[in-house]
Amino acid sequence: MARIAWQFRSLVQCELWPNECVDLALLLLYDLAMALLRGLFWLALFIFFTFCFIVLFEYGTHDFSNGFQKEFARVKEFVMQAAKPEKPKK
């Protein structure tokens, strides 16, 4: 049984299905966009679970929902304060 050698394809695959030509640049752009989306999803998930761990560590299981609301308000206030431009001193 003979081994099949590696076959290098052209940038545009039109040999098998001429009506469905796939441009490699478009395919790479799609892969890059999906990788970015997946990375942003994992980052958001990491931040959410880190926030939940901090609330659980600070307030415990008996007061988790109230602690979540308090910490969320604290983080929201911090972000709003950081986004506000600082007034110049006279």
Description:
By secondary structure, the protein is mainly alpha-helical. The chain has one domain (19-83). The protein contains two helices and two strands. It has helices at residues 24-59, 64-83, and strands spanning 12-13, 22-23. The chain has a two-stranded antiparallel ribbon with strand order 1-2. β1 (12-13) and β2 (22-23) form a beta hairpin. It starts with 11 loop residues before the first strand and ends in a 7-residue tail after the last helix.
In short:
The protein is mostly helical and 90 residues long. 62% of the residues lie in helices and 4% in strands. It has a two-stranded antiparallel ribbon with strand order 1-2.
Strand content: under 5%
Q: Helical amount among residues, as a percent range?
A: 55-70%
Question: What sequence of helices (H) and strands (E) makes up the elements?
Answer: EEHH
* Unreliable residue stretches: none
How would you write the strand order of the largest sheet? 1-2
Largest sheet: 2 strands, antiparallel
Write the layout of secondary structure elements.
Layout: E1 12-13, E2 22-23, H1 24-59, H2 64-83
Antiparallel strand pairs: 1-2
